[in-house]
Structure formats: C-alpha cells, structure tokens
Design goal:
Its EC number is 2.1.1.192. The chain is α/β, with parallel strands linked by helices. It contains ten helices and 14 strands. The protein has two domains: 6-64, DNA polymerase, domain 1, CATH 1.10.150; 69-335, Aldolase class I (TIM Barrel), CATH 3.20.20.70. Strand 5 (92-99) and strand 6 (104-107) form a beta hairpin. Helix 1 (13-22) crosses helix 2 (27-38) and helix 4 crosses helix 5. The mean pLDDT is 93. The protein binds S-adenosyl-L-homocysteine.
C-alpha cells in the first residue's frame, strides 16, 4: 500500500526540527530545510543544495511540497494582473496585482468560494469549497511579488485580503500566513502594509483585538442602517450593526488602530442623505475613515452605481463632519479583476 506523503509545509519550524532529531540528525537541519521552503520558495527537495543527497531522498520518501501553480495570467491595459491559481487538488482561486505610481499591492484570496451571501459580489455565487492553507495564501503573495519584480521592476509593497472569501472565517490560516509574510524568515514585510478586509464578523474582530494583531482592519460596511444592510448582505441579520459597532469599539480600544470602512453607493439603495448621515453616526463610534468604492457590475443589472451627484453628497456630508473620505476608482475591470468580480470566469 502506498503511504500518503505529508505536506511538509504544514509543519512549523519547531516540528521540522523535532522531525530531524527523531531521525537522528541535528535540529539545525530543520532550520535549513525551513529556509528553503519559505525564504527561498523551493519547489523540490532536489533544489536544497546544502542538504545531503541521502537526506533529500529521505525527505522525498516522507513528504511532498505542495505549491500553487499560476495557471493563467491576464494583464489589463492599466497594468493590473490577474492570476488564476491552481491548488494541489485542482481547485482554482484568483489573486490580483494592482500597480500604482508608487506601490504594488497584492489582493489575495483566503477561501475557495465564500460562505457569505453579499448580493452584489460575484464570489458569493460560488459555493464555499474549502479554506486555503497558510502556504496557499503565502504562495499567492510570492507569485505576485515575482510578477511585480518582473513587470514593474520593484518588489511588492502592500497586501490586501480582498480577494475571494471571508478572511475572518479562515482566521487561523490567515494569521499563520501573515506570520510567515511578516517574519524575517519569510518575506519580512511590515504588518502595517497589510489590510485584512472583513464583511464584519463581530466575534472574530474581538478575537483579533485580543490577539493584538499588527495589521490593519477594513470593514465592508455599505450601509449603516440595519434594514438596508440586511437586504444587500443577508448575514447582517445574524451579525447586526449593534454587535459590529461594539466589536469595532473593542478593536479600537485594544489596538488604537483606526478602521477603514469600504462603502459602495448604489442607485436607489443607499444614495439618500439619511444614508450618509447614518454612516456619519457609525463613524463616530471609533476613529475611522471611509473609502467610497466604485461598483463593478456583475452582470444582472440589479445593482447600479449611484450618480456622481450622490457620491458628491456623501463626500460633503462626511467632510462636514470631519471624517476622512476618499473616492476609489477600480482597476483591472477589463479582465474581471476588480473588487467583487473574482469568480473563476476564465
Ligand atoms: N469578504 C471580505 C473580503 C472580500 S470582498 C469582505 O467582505 O470585506 C472585498 C471588497 O470588495 C469588499 O469591500 C466588498 O464589499 C467589495 N465588493 C464586493 N463585490 C463588489 C462589487 N461588485 N463592486 C465593488 N466592490 C465589491
């Protein structure tokens, strides 16, 4: 009977060190292999040139190295790149490289599909198949870092967890991936350059605060009125705004990190003055800023971006109340790489 080999990248550094000690080798060998796996992103044991042939063969007999494979790469006219990423079990997720004049941002996925039901988001139409493992999240970042060097002559500067899935529904693996991304033994990126975006799971926001995470938090708010939010994001019935607000206050008290609210203004849904005023009230609970994001149509015409007059109204109401607001344009729309358009179409 063939023994199913274990994914070596599921082991922590400590577990790798222990493995080598059990084999009668030095714990230090674990450090060397760990460095190959993470810092040097080795795809095979053969690449590990400072490890003896015998040890490499022993590793080969016991483990596999599961790497993602960029199956298809699409480049937009504006420089945005979308990767369709094949996982070891042939499921596909997408990640996006977004270049600006000074930065390269990676937008990465945390789940295959999504368990939430935001009615304006293409990903919500895919069933949630499974959570991504820490290495599958990490690999998306490495792939984009390589593409950034190749096509934009600079390394990756920022990461947003705004691809497919709800990161806080795969909290442990997202945290492990961020640990690797920020560790000097991984990519050594500053956590201040990482944003985790959530549709707002109160219990998990509190857990993040308790865990004293150092990355930034964005919340996809879209309405500060329960009835409206529930109509566009039905899970709001389970996690109403009061619970979300309380969790965000807890987050701010513990971390002193201000919160970014992502907000799309839609025609006839949340484009009235009372909607903007409700947002102002919500913003008063904890220091925050608002990103008004452009709507990216997902085909059925039910949701329409509000008029620029409505957007201007939001900006003036927010600014009159001293709330920082930016209006964000989408990138990569011609290749379905913009927010909410990730649905494995190609
Ligand atoms: N589940 C997480 C992260 C993925 S969505 C979250 O909800 O935050 C990333 C952002 O894209 C969210 O702010 C989401 O509300 C927004 N979004 C989803 N569909 C969109 C669409 N069609 N047009 C514009 N933004 C969209």
């Amino acid at each position: 009977m063939e023994v199913k080999k274990k994914d070596i990248r599921a082991l922590t550094k400590e577990q790798l060190r222990e493995f080598f000690v059990k084999q009668g080798d030095k714990a230090f060998r674990g450090n060397q292999v760990y460095e190959w796996l993470w810092q040097k992103s080795a795809y095979s044991f053969e690449d590990m040139t400072n490890i003896s042939l015998e040890t490499r063969q022993m590793l080969e007999a016991n483990f596999v190295i599961n790497h993602i494979k960029v199956d298809q790469m699409q480049r937009s006219a504006d420089g945005t790149i979308k990767n369709a990423v094949r996982l070891h079990d042939d499921l596909i997720v997408e990640s996006v490289l977004i270049p600006t004049a000074t930065r390269t941002t990676a937008c990465v996925s945390s789940q295959v599909g999504c368990s939430l039901d935001c009615r304006f988001c293409a990903t919500s139409r895919l069933k949630r198949m499974r959570n991504l493992n820490p290495d599958e999240i990490y690999d998306q970042v490495v792939a984009i870092d390589n593409e950034s060097r190749l096509y934009h002559n600079r390394s990756l500067s920022n990461i947003v967890f705004m691809g497919m899935g709800e990161p806080l529904m795969n909290y442990n693996n997202v945290l492990k991936a961020i640990d690797k991304i920020t560790s000097p033994e991984g990519l050594g990126m500053s956590p201040k350059r990482i944003v985790v975006s959530t549709s707002g799971v109160p219990k998990m926001i509190k857990k993040m605060a308790d865990d004293k995470v150092k990355f930034k938090l964005a919340v996809s708010l879209h309405s500060a009125i329960d009835e409206i939010r529930t109509s566009i994001m039905p899970f709001n019935a389970t996690f109403p705004l009061n619970d979300l607000r309380e969790a965000l206050q807890y987050w701010y008290a513990a971390t002193k990190n201000r919160i970014t609210y992502e907000y799309v203004v839609w025609d006839a849904i949340n484009d009235k003055r009372k909607d903007a005023e409700a947002l102002v009230e919500f913003c008063k609970f904890a220091p925050s800023k608002v990103n008004l994001i452009e709507y990216n149509p997902i085909d059925d015409g039910e949701f329409q971006q509000a008029s620029s007059k409505a957007i201007d109204m939001y900006v003036s109401v927010l600014e009159a109340n001293n709330i920082t607001v930016t209006v964000r344009r989408s990138r990569g729309k011609d290749i379905d790489a913009a927010c909410g358009q990730l649905a494995n179409k190609s």
